[in-house]
């Protein structure tokens, strides 16, 4: 384990985000490599949604091969936070997509199986990730995929379901219709928000770009509301299998109560037939 932050030597920056910086670090005594996420203290705490999040709490309390492991968490008197995590040596699905181009169906199924297993674990504890997208899915050289970045996640027991504004966080492009339009919001189906984001993510990895628009086009917020709320399902390349088409449409039902759950999707033929083979 890691007992003191001082024992860690910074090697390089792995990523910058909204609330801080992630470093690759080495433990001086053991030479073990970790990722260290340092979250800035904000002098004006009321302006910082991070304060309401449960990132540290969730990372410390979860134990799944499909969720990034936390090996230590620290908080300074000034309010700066640091989280030591296992290091994922192949980066994120976003960097892999940019480096190597679109993934074949067998990889999509294998990634889908792993992320669904992670989401199934989280949803069973009433934890909602709320920011599933390629840059928050970490990968190692063996194509093990783990869910990371719980910066906007929520823990919400059934007795205290989130209200609309609690889940209006994350990244617009991956937000489900009921998160972009408060009239569609239903507190009984919050987990379905993560399933929509996963559907968009997997389709993006398959076609190589944001799937609701032609390559190169970046949607603005208003377009996204119209596309996800009223638009047709994204068109699929003609070589896509029936299983993949069916799977994606189960993730992208507009009504959250019709979307399949993580547990149901784990036994979808696309995942059972292809995802598990290589696991
Ligand atoms: P943010 O809230 O700033 O987006 P993330 O937790 O998503 O924070 O981390 C930002 C980036 O840092 C990621 O997109 C990834 O490139 C890199 N990163 C984060 N955690 C790890 C890790 N455990 N191993 C390797 N790289 C990581
Ligand atoms: Mg992130």
Automatic annotation (TrEMBL):
A GO molecular-function descriptor: ATP binding
Catalytic activity reads: L-tyrosyl-[protein] + ATP = O-phospho-L-tyrosyl-[protein] + ADP + H(+); L-threonyl-[protein] + ATP = O-phospho-L-threonyl-[protein] + ADP + H(+); L-seryl-[protein] + ATP = O-phospho-L-seryl-[protein] + ADP + H(+)
Identify the EC number(s): 2.7.12.2
- Look up the record and report any one GO term of the cellular component aspect: cytoplasm
Q: Where is the Protein kinase domain?
A: 8-271
Q: Which InterPro entries match?
A: Kinase-like_dom_sf (IPR011009), Prot_kinase_dom (IPR000719), Protein_kinase_ATP_BS (IPR017441), Ser/Thr_kinase_AS (IPR008271)
Q: Would you tell me the protein name for this molecule?
A: mitogen-activated protein kinase kinase
- Residues annotated to bind ATP: 37
Lineage of this protein's species?
Eukaryota, Viridiplantae, Streptophyta, Embryophyta, Tracheophyta
- Biological processes annotated in GO: response to other organism
| A matching Pfam family | Pkinase
Family indicated by similarity = Belongs to the protein kinase superfamily. STE Ser/Thr protein kinase family. MAP kinase kinase subfamily.
The highest taxon in the source lineage is Eukaryota
Enzyme class, first EC level, given as a word:
transferase
What keywords sit in the KW lines? ATP-binding, Kinase, Nucleotide-binding, Serine/threonine-protein kinase, Transferase
